[in-house]
Description:
The chain is an alpha/beta fold. The chain has a single domain, classed as TIM Barrel (Alpha-Beta Barrel), CATH 3.20.20. It is 34% helix and 13% strand. The chain contains eight helices and seven strands; from the N terminus they run αβαβααβαββαβαβα. It has helices spanning 2-6, 45-48, 68-72, 78-82, 100-119, 160-177, 190-198, 209-217, and strands spanning 42-44, 57-59, 86-88, 124-125, 148-152, 181-186, 202-207. The strands form two sheets. A four-stranded parallel sheet has the order 1-2-3-4. The chain has a three-stranded parallel sheet with strand order 5-6-7.
Amino acid sequence: MTSFSANPRLDVFKSNLVKDAYFSPNYEFPIIKRTVLKPEEAIPFDKASKSINFNHWIHFYIHDRNFERLWNNPKQYLAMLKRFDGVITPDFSLYRELPLAIQIWNTYRNRALAFWLQNNDINIVPNIRWGDERTYAFAFEGIEQGGTVAVSTSGRMRDKTDRYYFTKGLAKMVDALKPDTIISYSSTPKDIFGQYMEQGVEIIHIENYAITIRKVVD
């Protein structure tokens, strides 16, 4: 990595994002420090540049094409991101039909940007994304146990198969990371999250931005 870091033009792997990081033992993801922050309002990254309300967190529960530019040129957005209360880390897709290599790469990109943001003194909550059973080996790696993590139910509740994989993966995540608090973006079905509330996990619901905007308009 050192040779690429010495010349930014050659650093197509964005190795500078993980400079000085400690890495997890299996997939060598940069390790993200535990956070106890609890965001209650968030706006999507692609709306943040026009926002004047900085008492929000930024989230990435939008199509990947709308935040790929952050990966390509993260320094360009650093000043903007620092204006807000914090960042729920990027939600690169783990579609089940994607080759597993791409799903591992997208998980790495989540961790790399999370580490870089944290290393630049930006408040973060790590976003956790999984797919099917194949992803459990790496989807929770690189995140310190306890504290706060974020998930999104957006687009994963209507289809029975998607709901099944979300529910099963959530159980695996709670077992692996033992979070004190789970931020749930979009919806918080009681039949899915209720058991964790009973176990003492705090569940914080952040309303889908589209619904929030409709309420403002109405």
